[in-house]
Design goal:
The chain has helices at residues 11-35, 50-53, 62-81, 100-105, 112-121, 130-140, and strands spanning 42-47, 87-94, 152-155. The chain contains six helices and three strands, in the order αβααβαααβ.
Length: 172
């Protein structure tokens, strides 16, 4: 997916696009999935973000956090509504993940020194590998994950429980 800045130079329009893509798009996809005929053991696995889906980060784009919070809420609401249906509903909320989109939106704007400092502040001092998130999704798609119906999983290596890491200085 291209960044919304590539679609429009207007901040208000970018915010509307962010909400349309992340929140409204996910809502429509979920409605289609749940209304389609399906067999047993169906899984609806949404991707949100630690920013909005789990916690708040001062200075992050409001529309991004709002749209990710909407995905987390949608997941919980749909899980409540489908508790007696043969479908499981989850959301995964990754932290800073080494994807082309994160590289372009965040890391590419940093000097080498700023990038090193940014990475040092992250839990475990590194980005999350996409394969780590994929492994979580793979597990959620399996039968043993059924007991987690409705879970909104913090997949941020601890950033969701300690968001201040992004603004802390020094070792604590």
């Amino acid at each position: 997916m291209r960044m919304v800045a590539n679609w429009s130079g207007d901040a208000d329009e970018q915010d509307s696009l962010m909400l349309a893509i992340n929140a409204d798009g996910t809502l429509k996809m979920c409605r289609e999935f749940l209304s389609a005929p399906g067999g047993p053991d169906r899984k609806l696995i949404n991707i949100s973000s630690v920013g909005g889906g789990i916690t708040a980060f001062p200075g992050f784009r409001l529309s991004d956090g709002m749209s990710k919070a909407a995905v987390a809420f949608l997941t919980r609401q749909l899980a409540a509504e489908t508790v007696h249906r043969d479908v499981d509903v989850f959301a995964v909320c990754p932290g800073a993940t080494d994807t082309p989109m994160f590289q372009a939106s965040t890391l590419s704007k940093l000097t080498p020194g700023e990038r090193a400092a940014f990475l040092a502040r992250l839990p475990k001092g590194r980005l999350i590998a996409p394969k780590e998130i994929a492994a979580i999704v793979h597990f959620l798609a399996s039968p043993p994950a059924r007991v987690l119906h409705g879970a909104v999983l913090d997949a941020s290596m601890g950033l969701g429980v300690r968001p201040g890491l992004m603004s802390e200085h020094g070792d604590h």
